[in-house]
Amino acid sequence: MLLAVFSDIHGNRQAFEACLKVARAKGAERFVLLGDFVGYGADPEWVVETAMDLVAQGAVAVRGNHDEAVNSTTESMNNEAQIAIEWTRGRLDAAQRRFLAELPMLVEDSDRLFVHAEASSPKRWHYVRTTADAAKSLIATPSHVTFCGHIHRPALYSMSVTAKMTSFVPKTDVPVQLLRGRQWLAVLGAVGQPRDGDPSASFVLFDTVSCQITYCRVPYDIASAANKIRENGLPPWLADRLSQGR
Amino acid sequence: MPKSLVKSGAEIDGYILGECVHAGGMATLWTVTHPGIDVPLLMKVPRASEGEDPAAIVSFEMEMMILPRLAGPHVPHCYGTGDFARQAYAVIERIPGTTLYKRLPDLPLPYDEARLLVAKIAAALADLHRQNVIHHDIKPSSIMFRESGDAVLIDYGLSHHNHLPDLLQAEFRLPYGTAPYMAPERLLGVRDDPRSDLFSLGVLLYFFTTGERPFGEGETLRAMRRRLWRDPHPPRSLRADYPPWLQEVVLRCLEIEPVRRYPTATQLAFDLAHPNQVRLTMRSERMKRDSWSVAWRRRFNQDVKQPRVQPDVAEQIASSPILAVALDTEEGAAELNEALRVTTERILATLPSARLACVNVLKLNRIAIDKTLDEQGSNKHIDRLVALRHWATPLKLDESRLSVHVLEAVDPAAALLEFAEVNQVDHVIIGARQSSFRRTLLGSVSAKVAAEAACTVTVVRPPRMAAAKPGAGVVWG
Description:
The complex is a heterodimer of chains A (246) and B (477). With 246 residues, chain A is an alpha/beta fold.
């Protein structure tokens, strides 16, 4: 089965729509949403509503730190993120907020694990920045492949049976076979706010039979997404950074 | 599946095992047959049981990732792989014959035989590098030849694929590979530079032409590290008749700094195909190694080396293309040749490692027997070589980046196309014939080259003159 995995949509309707369209065209049969549906972007209602529809149709979804912050005031965030979350809170209705509040922290599906930040302590929202961070997450699970997001920069780590780590920056559109016999951590780039210097939206396709993962990039209407952020009085940097991909 | 099931007569995923034809330290090789495949096949099975070297497993994983992605005549075709969850294996085509290892008793080979042999291996390496793979274990036992003469590179267990995770990057405390052939940067942990393969091929060329390995056979790290600062004996000091051009090529491959080697395998193949065009430098003249003081300075200044820029295999190859410019030295082509020079200059300006081949076709008469000497008795061939060099002088190219070629042929377009094909030219620059009368009469060479070449072709015309439109009168007013 071909999975399409999305992370860090962050209220960016244009980016999410573009990715869904490409994923469907490529034959994705099941969707996985790795959290951070809201925050930063100006279309939280549409994104959450779309996520709710997808989940109703069988998609897997987990909770991100921004989703949590919508329902809790204790989550500490930087100033711009905080402004965006407070704005978002006022936009979502009760059902949408409940959907976010009830999302699981992680989902294990066959020999795959889906989590927003990493698997060793998902509620602490640690970033996977180094092979040591990746090793910590991989040791915490027996799953063959862990999918996570949170850091907005694509990376692919593996750990051998002798606990040797490899790290790799995946090339767009080049399928990589995630060999059995070692564990893999697939860190996704962001759909709605890429930070790896490439402003196009990022998602992943995973073939559960061949175990091949493909990192995809999708160009989208950045100008409209950025304009909407400005029109709604959100911090202008949140609009500017979209075209810079950082 | 227990390992004991890998035996004659067993079946794995439809493959019936025949005999074990090789049992090496890392893997065993079996002949296999499959009802749906009618070419001779080999199954490679890693030694992966408990207590075996984990390196064997990792290098087999690497090979399983890389083999199915390779294509073309220079690699064994891969028919299928099985992973460690059941029984790890890779089924590849069985290439008839033996590896180059069997030639070792014949060394040293005659210079020209070695030249042609290594040129074929360089062409195979170029094809591999274009597929984003660095072999990292180039040595005689990794090289076979098809009946067509094409070199085939086998064994990808130590290879690096620029588009795939490098599973060997953290696996070994010591560099893994074949000590006598290993490039010095490999000892520093560098695995992503395709020029490491050119070093190994240089070792092979040195060995095959002198009968001696340039860095000995030492397997210890200490012995291997010596190549980071100690240069090999120049081949001319071992064999008095060693051609200077060949020493130039060998020592350029064996440069300690990758940046001083050939930028691509294609450029190495080009020099081997045109030995009389090899630009001779100090390398070709050396009769002994660097003095101890120079070597020791190198040894104790390792730390002050410039930080290395991460090369991208594809980018590096793309920035070092072979350009061929087709020039007409006759028929009053000055304006066109100037336009060709301007275009060539612009292209070269963006590609500091590109090399340029200036090509002219000496058209042979289809019926009459051509005379090499013209009416005035001068040699047409040499005259044209001189004219080509003269054309290229304003480009101020380093001699090692420039070559000139006069092709003798009845059909100029076919000759240019063949030159581009044989020399793996990446980009042909050619002028369009200006006179429509001549074009109608002779056919357009540039159109045929542009239509049929396998590479990029730029067709150049002189700057446009204001066209005199027929019937358009002068408008006063």
